Structure formats: C-alpha cells, structure tokens
Fold each of these.
Amino acid sequence: MEAKYYERLKNGFVQCTLCPHKCKIRPGSRGICKTRNNENGNLKVNFSGLIASSGLDPIEKKPLFHFYPGSKIYSIGGYGCNLHCSFCQNYEISQYLPDLTENYKTYEAKEIVTKASILPQNIGIAYTYNEPTVFFELMLETSLIAQKNGLKNVMVSNGYISQAPLEELLNTIDAFNIDLKSFNDGFYKTLTGGRLKPVLESLKTIVKHGKHLEIAFLVIPGLNDSSNEAGQMFKWICDHLGNDIPLHINRYYPAYQMSVAPTPPETLFKLRELALETLNFVYIGNLHHPNIGMNTICPSCSSTLIERTGYQTHLKLIDSSGFCKICGYGPVVKMA
Ligand code: SF4
C-alpha cells in the first residue's frame, strides 16, 4: 500500500510527513518506525492490515473512564512504533517487527468493521496496543467505514503525529487517549527518541476540535516523578486543555530496556493529590488496588458518580446524559 503523507525529493529520496520525525528516506531504506520504506521513489507501508493483537476490551482498559463508561470496544493493534521508549510496556509488538519475507494474513478495513459489527455489546473500534499512527492508512479507512456503520472510533496513541494527518483523523475518531510521558523535552529526546512539543500540539488540536480526550501519564521513579515537573504538566493541562480533562496517573513496571523498580504507590498518591489541586478527574492506573483512585467523584458536590472495581463499572449517580444526578454538574462523561 502506498503511504498517504510523503513528498518525493531529488535522487529518488522521499520524505515521510506522517509524524514529526519527517524522515528523509533513501531508495531501499525504511523510516525510523521501520513500517514505511522507499520503494523506487515511492513510500510504501509495510505490515498494513497485519493484526498483532485483537480483542473485545472494557473501554476502561484503554484507559477511557469518561467515554461510554462500562461499555466494551473491539480493539486492534499491529506492529511497530515511531517512538522507541526504553521503558515500553508493549515492546514485543512495538519494537520488534515480523519478517517481511513471510506470508502473513492481513485484514482489510471492511473485514475489521464486519467483525466489530457482530460482537455483542460493542460500541466500536479502538486502534491501540502498538502506535496506530504507523498504520495510519488502515486506521483512516477503517474508521470511515466504522463511522458509516454507526460505530465509535477510539485512538490510543503517543500523540506523535503531524498536524495534517491528525486533522484528517478528527473527522472519524471520536475519542483519544494520548500518552504524555513527561513534561521535559530532554526526557522525550533521550528515552523515547521524540520531542515534547509535537505531543502538546496534538493535545491542543484534539481539544480545539471538540473531541473527547483523556491523558495517560506513566510515572517512572527518578525520571519523570518530580513534583515540580509534574506540577508544571498538570498546570499546562488545566490552562491549555481545561480542568475537566481526565488524567490517568499510571504505575510503571520494569520492561524492555528499563530495570528501574516499579513506581512506589506513595508516589502515585502524592502526584494524584497534586494533580487534584488543578484538575477535576485524576485516576491511578496499573496499581491493582481496587479502591484507590478509580472512582469518578463529582467535583461540585463530591458524590461518587461511578464506582469501579477492576474492570467492573457501576454507574451510580450519573444520569443518561452524563450529568451528576445530585447537583446537575456536567456533562461529566459522554454517554450518547
Ligand atoms: S511515520 Fe515512520 S517513516 Fe514516517 S516520519 Fe514517522 S518515523 Fe519516519
């Protein structure tokens, strides 16, 4: 399949413009994500339609806590990523790619939508597990067909995507969960191979277009857990995106090239308290402690609106339009 976002340069080179790396690729070579290669002066997408993982997941697993809470979503992911985080929690599919010479079964957009349409209690399709930007063309086509079939589309991403393709996706993607890995450009540069600014731009664009957004922040001891730096992140979210944006503060576990010990729970609690000084909805994830930082509390009257135990979700005091049943605050969550 030919890539959608690239330019032809001199001497058979091409420049991919899909993500902020803007790789200039010589004939016969691949970009940083290794999923796009220059074939005789044309940029081709490798592994398109190759599904590494799929399943009907609780929407809370994405994590999205304020988008059709308690529902299920058909989730698919492929191989590859445009960032190379040394702490990647999904590195088996993001950092290792299948051998191109093998004959793999690949899926067409229509087949994915057909599968999604027959699953019971499914609200749509989530593009997730690896970085969906690297299978942009398939995601765009699938999301368009899914939308026409009344399904919702969700993108779970690192936010490292150029503005033009992101704006094109905004026509069909209903909700985003975007990683904000740190508020320090040096962290992005050294530990992910990307930069902070393009991610912040993506977050602003998503909100500007009125799409549902939640943010995930994976806290790694000694690397991005300082109160000062995290406090700047929380303030930026509040100032530029609004204080109702849900934030998921997630526990890190050693993975891939990172052997730092798991985040102490106390660090997560401390950062959550700090975030709650400016943001209304702050959750703790990956802790496997059922009752801490999982419930949705009304910022106006402090009622517990949604109770969560693991992936069990109880809509306690939320009306059918997503407002607090006690004081009318909202909409707190998207329900229809
Ligand atoms: S999507 Fe891949 S090839 Fe394109 S600019 Fe990003 S890293 Fe480079």
Note: DSSP finds eight helices and 16 strands in the chain.
Amino acid sequence: MHPLFDLTGKTALITGGGRGLGQAMAMGFAEAGADVFICARSGDQLAAVQAEVSAATGRRVEYSVVDVSDREQVKKLAVTALEKMGRIDILVNNAGINRPQAIVAIDDDDWDTQLEVNLSSIMALTRALVPQMKERKWGRVIHISSVLGVGSKEARNAYSATKAAVIGMSKASALDLGPFGVTVNCIAPGPFLTDLPMSLLDDAQKQQFSDFTAMNRWADPREIVGPALFLGSDASSYVTGATLLVDGGAYARAL
Ligand SMILES: NC(=O)c1ccc[n+]([C@@H]2O[C@H](COP(=O)([O-])OP(=O)(O)OC[C@H]3O[C@@H](n4cnc5c(N)ncnc54)[C@H](OP(=O)(O)O)[C@@H]3O)[C@@H](O)[C@H]2O)c1
C-alpha cells in the first residue's frame, strides 16, 4: 500500500455503517489499517458488519445503535465513540434517507426528519468531534452528499435541499478548520447499487439512471472506497472544501 493511504493508528467513525456505502467504507478503511466505529438503527446489521470486517482485517470494529434523527442520541454517540475508541481521526457523515415528495405534497414531519438526518445531525456530530482533531492538528471530515445536491430531480425537494446544504456547510467548516490541520470535504455519489435507490425506483427508472451515466451502469458500493480513502488519508493533505463527484460521469452530461 502506498504510505499516503495507510491509516494504521487512525480511528474512523462512519455513520450508517450497517449496509450500503457505509458498510463498504467500513471495510475499506479497516483494510487500510484503521480501527472503525459504526452506527445505525439496525443492530443486527451493525453486528454483521462488525463480524465481517474484523474477521477480514483483524482491525478493531465497534458499534452503537443510534437514531441520528434524535439530537440527544447524536450527542451521546460522540461521547460513546470517544470513550470506546479513545480518539476519532476520520469522521464520515454517511447516514442518509430519501423520502421523495413533490413540492406541493411535502409532509411537514417528513421534511423535518430529512433535515435532521441528512443535515442537522451532521452539524451536531461534526461539532462534537472536531475539537479533539484540532488538538492533534490532524483530522478528516467527509460528508456524503449526492449528485442530487449539485443538480436535482423531480420530487427530491428535501433530499436535494439537504445534500446541497452539506456542500455549503463543508466549505464554511473547511475555512474554520483549515488552520488546525482538519480538512472537510464532500463526496457526491451518483447511482450506487444499495437499498436506498433500489427501494425507490421502478425498473424503467433504474435503467434511466444507468443510461444517464457516461459508463452506462450503476456503481458497486465498493467503488466508493477509493474516493473515501483519498479524502480520509494523507493523500488529500491539501484538499479541503472540495466536492468530489463519484457519479460515473453522470454530471458530465448537459443534455
Ligand atoms: N446509493 C446511492 O445511489 C446514493 C447516491 C447519492 C448519495 N447517496 C448517499 O449515500 C449515503 C449512504 O446511502 P446508501 O445508498 O448506502 O443507503 P442505505 O443502504 O439505505 O444505507 C443508509 C445507512 O444509513 C443508516 N441510517 C438511515 N437513517 C438513519 C438514522 N435515522 N439514524 C442512524 N442511521 C441511519 C441506515 O441504517 P438504519 O436504517 O439501520 O438506521 C444505513 O446503515 C446516504 O447519505 C445517501 O443519501 C447514496
């Protein structure tokens, strides 16, 4: 492994690490040498990822069952993660939900929940964990946004609002934290084969998403690992406030 990508001695917290992109990043970071802390609501999924990743890599993997839509649980998550792991060097704000609703049909409770999960919890967790990164003069914060935070799609009002907001927040945080050796960046994924889009789209829409990319296919969840490792390691030491599109070229298309 190139030393720039070596995470030996580092500890990563990945929200939504029970399946999908979070699961892939937990494995990828552990393979690069990091100890990993994951959280989500489904304890059985977290336990399965813990067993799989620790068996495959020999790294320490811990988890907490947490609902990040509850601000008190987010505060407790930060305390628990620091107590169990001693330090968090890399924070990946990955947990996210998408409840599509056209503008005239938005349910207030759904709107509030999406803002809490996809935006406010990210602020609260980042706020809680960056002080100890600043003390060590090294930290990596990665927000998982979306191509739908750069452009959008019909009925993605709350989703796009939150995914664009984390891009904006990452720029401000990058400026706050740059002098302390802590970088803050976003990844904007295109279509990845996970439960989230699969549960929302019919077959025609799945084909349409694939056709929209330059590569004419959906991504395997493991294809998030390279970009996440780059932004989570010394390889990206002079990259902050950036948004990395990982979309198979979908956003290259104008028409
Ligand atoms: N897949 C794509 O095509 C795609 C594209 C662009 C952006 N993204 C973004 O990538 C991130 C990961 O998505 P994914 O595709 O991997 O989706 P996923 O397979 O549905 O995984 C989402 C993860 O977040 C957790 N989560 C959801 N709500 C939570 C809550 N209230 N509290 C704690 N954990 C919660 C889920 O666990 P529980 O349900 O057990 O809580 C799960 O572990 C999301 O931010 C998503 O918006 C995905």
Note: Residues 108-136 form the longest helix (29 residues).
